[in-house]
Design a protein that fits this description.
The structure is a single chain. By secondary structure, the chain is mainly beta. It has six helices and 35 strands. The longest helix is centred in the N-terminal third of the chain and has 13 residues.
């Protein structure tokens, strides 16, 4: 059954759900759900971690167009999200995680309501989330996510859904604008007795700034919770997604400057071979929470089904993947005192298992040809952690953590077409491992100190990360056979003082066996290998300043003039590499500055400019011979955001119509010449939105 049929059936069932779930609209603070922490709870909890964290209230990005990862994390320091062509698909990186990947993310654990969305091999899809369906988003940068079972260099991002408690009543939102962009969502929250229900049904489509960039997606997110008694609650989650995306491909810099709206029309290009990425995703999950005094047990289980149809270059062919993934886990938390002082102990165990049937076909100008090969892939991960946070003195706490992981990646080549020959297919070399069974084991410790006084925090910590390769890396070239590890030191401060809020972190990571993805400049096929030694260090700085001098602690004044900014600096370099020496690792610009200056009043109105500035070039090759140019973008938005009734916005982007590369591919050696690696950002555009809460 197609996902859109499932959407219709499930939505109809939800809207005609049991008569006992009659709408009860309550506009006051309700008792939070046991299974779903509130924005306030998460902000308090993440603020106790001695490292880089952030809780993003959805209200922050709902003041403008809320479509891409770049818009969701526009003001999040340390999170680099660059849209490929104004779409869901993006390059997303934290502290240099997966920094060469402009597709199908890696290096970050993406979660929905505390349950991983990543496939068992570690990869994830940007289309699997919807910013219009969430209450808030939690971000743990780097190994600060160990207590979420994440041992990756990039950390974790968790999208927390609304419930019938946090979003009672109904809301309808529509966004539209340039390039035939349309995004519409209808959502509702119901509470009755011990049960609550929330659902969000959305549609998004656009023709796109570039040719051959049409997209369409339908998404359903729903959850139903029931409080069995005061200390026991279970909640069921349903996700159903159907998404179709045309891929316009990369351009040379000369082509981009001449006409950034064109698709790759080269002989082997995206237009001629109808490059697309279409998939259906269906996911069921459950979270159950049992509380017994100072002890809490959290259980989760999840099953996801994904069917991918991905015509790409004639060299990569048509990728057809059918995946089934299972996840289960248990977390125990104790908040009792230890030695007369506040203490929190957590431990957890999780297991994920994924099976993927990966078939590759010839791409006959967009049509599926004969099968080239077929693999059966199995990935498993057994992960455990313990963490203890102890209040040493009134203002000083010590957090210690230890995570252990055992992962396997097994690939069986079950079919190889003997008639498949060059130029569009080269059989694997005799030494290539098309069938293998690898295992990876590691232990990741962490320790951190946090001092807090008068609303100002200082912290310092050490942590280790660990990440085995995903199948897209291990199978493509059979080169990346080792897990990536890193040792990280970080120090920072965050707090509020009068009219200023800030969040600043400095980190330094020594990385071993970094997973480096390189795109072949002719075939555009990506391969991944393990580098020897690399170094990542950077600064993550976020600030929010009321230029009228009103305090953030006092009650809201009638007017504010607020400057918000996120500055991310990342230096990612090879360390004495036999091929690249101490060159910069290609993929991301070292400096990215984003921000806004808004006048706001106590009636919900706001108006002002937005900006994005990349002041230095970004290399497209590890030899550092050719680069994308610096750029500066200026926008403007105004509107009104209220908790009841009608909210609205009008937002203009790239007012100067700057031609720029929003992101780019990565190759080994450009030889100082222009290459087909540039993905142009959107030109001048205007969007408007209307939301009604009732």
């Amino acid at each position: 059954m197609k996902i859109y049929q499932t959407l219709l059936i499930t939505t109809t069932a939800a809207l005609s759900a049991p008569e006992s779930l009659t709408p009860t609209v309550v506009k006051s603070d309700d008792e939070p759900a046991l299974t779903q922490p509130s924005l306030k709870q998460d902000r308090l909890e993440l603020g106790k971690i001695p490292g880089g964290t952030e809780t993003v209230d959805a209200e922050r990005f709902l003041t403008g167009r809320a479509s891409t990862f770049a818009e969701t994390f526009f003001l999040s320091p340390g999170v680099v999200a660059q849209p490929r062509f104004g779409s869901d698909e993006a390059r997303i990186s934290i502290r240099g995680s997966g920094l060469q990947r402009t597709f199908h993310g890696r290096g970050i654990r993406i979660m929905q309501d505390g349950v991983p969305l990543n496939l068992a091999d570690g990869g994830f899809d940007m289309q699997a989330v919807d910013p219009l369906a969430v209450s808030h988003v939690n971000i743990w940068r780097g190994s600060n996510a160990l207590a979420n079972g994440s041992t990756t260099l990039g950390g974790a991002i968790d999208y927390l859904s609304h419930t019938g408690h946090t979003a009672p009543g109904h809301s309808a939102r529509i966004e539209g604008g340039s390039y035939e962009y349309l995004r519409a969502r209808y959502a509702g929250g119901i509470t009755e007795g011990s049960g609550d229900l929330y659902w969000s049904l959305s549609h998004a489509s656009q023709n796109g700034f570039r040719d051959h960039a049409e997209q369409s997606a339908q998404r359903l997110f729903a959850n139903y919770g029931i409080r069995i008694h005061d200390d026991l609650e279970t909640r069921f989650f349903l996700t159903a997604i159907h998404t179709d995306s045309e891929l316009p491909g990369s351009l040379t810099k000369a082509e981009m400057n001449a006409n950034p709206r064109q698709a790759d029309g080269s002989f082997f290009g995206a237009l001629r071979f109808d490059n697309r990425r279409d998939f259906e995703l269906f996911r069921l999950a459950n979270k159950t929470t049992l509380r017994d005094g100072a002890n809490t047990w959290d259980f989760h289980t999840a099953w996801s089904y994904k069917n991918l149809d991905h015509p790409i270059t004639p060299f990569a062919g048509v990728i057809d993947q059918l995946s089934n993934d299972l996840a289960s886990g248990l977390t125990f938390t104790n908040t009792g005192d230890l030695a007369g002082r506040e203490n929190r102990f957590r431990s957890g165990l999780s297991f994920t298992y994924g099976e993927t049937t990966d078939a590759r076909f010839f791409n006959n100008l967009g049509a599926r040809g004969a099968m080239r090969n077929k693999d059966e892939q199995t990935a498993t991960n057994l992960e455990a952690f313990i963490e203890n946070r102890h209040q040493l003195t009134g203002g000083l706490s010590l957090t210690t953590s230890l995570a252990a992981a055992y992962s396997t990646r097994e690939n069986d080549r079950i079919f190889s077409n003997p008639a498949a020959t060059p130029p569009f297919y080269t059989p694997p070399a005799l030494s290539a491992l098309t069938t293998y069974d690898d295992s990876f084991t590691n232990i990741a410790p962490a320790v951190g100190l946090l001092h807090e006084k008068d609303g100002i925090q200082w912290f310092a910590g050490y942590s280790r990360s660990f990440e085995p390769p995903s199948f897209s890396e291990a199978v493509t070239a059979n080169i990346a056979r080792d897990a990536q590890t890193a040792d990280t030191m970080e120090v920072g401060t965050r707090g509020t003082r009068s009219f200023a809020k800030w969040d600043a972190t400095v980190y330094y990571s020594q990385v071993k066996d970094e997973l480096l993805t390189i795109t072949d400049p002719l075939t555009l096929v990506s391969t991944t290998r393990n580098a020897d030694d690399t170094i990542h260090y950077g600064i993550e700085l976020g600030a929010e300043i009321d230029l009228l001098g009103s305090s953030w602690i006092d009650e809201s004044p009638a007017h504010r003039l607020v400057f918000r900014t996120a500055y991310t600096y990342g230096s990612f370099k090879f360390d004495g590499d036999p091929t690249y020496g101490d060159n910069r690792i290609a993929g991301l610009p070292p400096h990215i500055v984003r921000g806004e200056l808004l006048w706001e009043n106590d009636r919900g109105y706001y108006v002002g400019p937005t900006f994005e500035w990349v002041p230095v070039k970004s290399f497209i090759d590890h030899r550092n011979t050719f680069a994308a140019d610096p750029y500066a973008l200026l926008g403007f938005k105004f509107g009104r955001r209220v908790s009841e009734g009608f909210s609205w916005f009008i937002e203009a982007k790239n007012l100067t119509d700057e031609v720029h590369a929003a992101t780019h591919g990565v190759i080994d050696n450009a030889g100082g010449t222009d290459q087909r690696q540039f993905l142009p950002g959107d030109g001048r555009s205007v969007f408007a939105g209307l939301e009604w809460k009732f």
